Amino acid sequence: MRLGRFGIWSSVHLWPGKLEIGALLQEQGFGTLWLGGSPGGDLAVAEQLLDATETLTIATGIVNVWADGPESIAAAYNRIAKKHPDRFLLGVGIGHPQMTATYEKPYQKLVSYLDALDAEGVPVEGRALAALGPKVLQLSADRTAGAHPYLTTPEHTRQAREILGPDRLLAPEVMVVLETDPSKARAVARQTLQFYLTLSNYTNNFRRLGFTDEDFADGGSDRLVDALVAYGEPEEVLARAGEHHDAGADHVTIQVLTGDNTVLPVDGFRALGAVLPR
């Protein structure tokens, strides 16, 4: 399937009743809309967005394996893929240990989930894994189309490409703030980052990239924020996102931060679309 060079990452909970915005993203040239957060076992919003568009690819970023069983997800995937061939990518992930009471043996949980998807007929090329560490990146290469790392740096993308090899999908997410004042941009970024800096799977990954506990305090040091979040004019943030392409990404999906996570940042979508390479 065609994901395009750039996509948009946005919380699935903001999309009911906003299907026309999917058509806007398609018209602007974004290849894929990634629905962030676990979208529910019937994947209804993904199907509705596919129904409302013609060429836009929809991906889940991600289905949480603790929240929805593989049988219901596989049934939904097979229904949607039959209706919209080559336009739906099933992103699957393990979630966060701090957010799941039953979180045990996460790697084996992923393996068994993929086994169940195999048994239910979900093809390898139709699914991807949220992956940060080397072990799950390798699992992505072995058992799926590739990896969808969230909240990483171009250096992580370089390392991930080495593990995945040349033929697997690498589609990192990048947060951006359309603000030229560094202090204001960092303040907006920290409103989102402070949550992830309480989660061990992210902080462990940041440590592998050379950051320390000092970088995780108070919503993140300037050094950490500047490494993770692109800010500035639309052309500047696209150039920053493009550093992941230079590091080996096939597709980069952009999350627009505004400080208000309750509404779709449509103005940001329009501003980025206006300068998107065609």
UniProtKB/TrEMBL annotation:
The keyword Nucleotide-binding appears for this protein: no
Domain named Luciferase-like: residues: 20-251
Organism expressing this protein natively: Kibdelosporangium banguiense
The entry's keywords: Oxidoreductase
One Pfam family linked to the record: Bac_luciferase
NCBIfam families given in the database record: F420_MSMEG_4141
InterPro entries noted in UniProt: F420-G6PD/mer, Lucif-like_OxRdatse_MSMEG_4141, Luciferase-like_dom, Luciferase-like_sf
Protein name as catalogued: F420-dependent oxidoreductase
High-level lineage: Bacteria, Bacillati, Actinomycetota, Actinomycetes, Pseudonocardiales
